[in-house]
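Fig. S4 source data, part A: sequence.
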Amino acid sequence: ATHKKQIFRSIEEIESFFSDYVLTLVDSMEKHGYDTSKTTDTGNALINKDGELQKAGSGNHRFFVARIVGVKPIPLRVTGVHQEWFERHVDKNDWLKSLCEQLSRVERNCL
């Protein structure tokens, strides 16, 4: 198994990864919430055709742990939207303002 550039060659190494990294992350988020000072990147997400966030790219561990323990809000960078969603919800005459309003709507639906 691998995680980023780390290679696990045994069950013991995988178990150690979970106890030293994953469980520490869960404990920290339960106690302190999503601490942006503990990471160098913001997670990325896409908006699917139904207007729901779909996780993409980096930050998956933090994103899913935060969702599991109920931490809100979660900082995300929206890197793309589905064309069908865009065409249904964004006013082409004032697309920038409309897109910002729709992104705020997606955010409210996630809280």
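Fig. S4 source data, part B ends here. The CA atoms of residues 73 and 111 lie 7 Å apart.
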